[in-house]
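Colleagues,

For the teaching module next term, I've prepared a clean inverse folding example: a structure given as tokens, and then the sequence designed for it. I'd like students to try predicting residues themselves before seeing the answer, so please don't circulate the second half yet.
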């Protein structure tokens, strides 16, 4: 019996579920599995048949309680009987699953649209950052130019005031002595 036991990774790959899911099912439905499955996580063919039935019932949307009932109702000696377990209202379940699938597709499409929108926002954000940096550099250059112009204007003003003072002194010196005396 030990020679034909499979490890959790093999069973996980065979059933297309994660090893974590297998461990959770072993904890929940351990009463329907062999002691080796519960203790060493090595599975016999019978254990794999039970786990396959659990996987199928979960895909059908059954709750853990409903799966437990189905496993109790099945013949424990025949794993094949577990595989034949069906829901009484298959058409209703198919409609529910179809609705869930449509909702899932809608959510995926919404998520894709949100990703596209986020990509546009990120691109716009980078473009705005570049534009902001360019404007900041331009503003700094304009402030430096304004500072140079103010300094140039101040120097020109001082130069004009000196020339005006010089001209006033020359004008005063060129007046006849009697006008200077009278203050005219």
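(Answer key — instructors only)
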């Amino acid at each position: 019996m030990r020679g034909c036991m499979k490890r959790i990774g093999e069973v996980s790959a065979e059933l297309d579920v994660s090893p974590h899911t297998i461990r959770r099912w072993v904890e929940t439905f351990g009463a329907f599995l062999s002691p080796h499955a519960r203790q060493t996580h090595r599975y016999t063919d019978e254990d794999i048949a039970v786990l396959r039935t659990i996987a199928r019932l979960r895909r059908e949307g059954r709750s853990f309680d409903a799966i437990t009932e189905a496993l109790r109702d099945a013949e424990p000696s025949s794993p094949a009987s577990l595989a034949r377990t069906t829901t009484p209202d298959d058409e209703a379940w198919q409609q529910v699953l179809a609705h869930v699938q449509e909702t899932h597709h809608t959510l995926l499409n919404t998520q894709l649209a949100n990703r596209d929108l986020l990509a546009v926002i990120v691109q716009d954000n980078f473009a705005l950052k570049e534009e902001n940096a360019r404007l900041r550099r331009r503003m700094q250059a304009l402030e430096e130019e304004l500072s140079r112009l103010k300094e140039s204007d101040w120097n020109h003003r001082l130069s004009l005031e000196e020339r005006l003072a010089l001209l006033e002194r020359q004008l005063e010196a060129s007046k006849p002595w009697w006008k200077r005396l009278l203050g005219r």
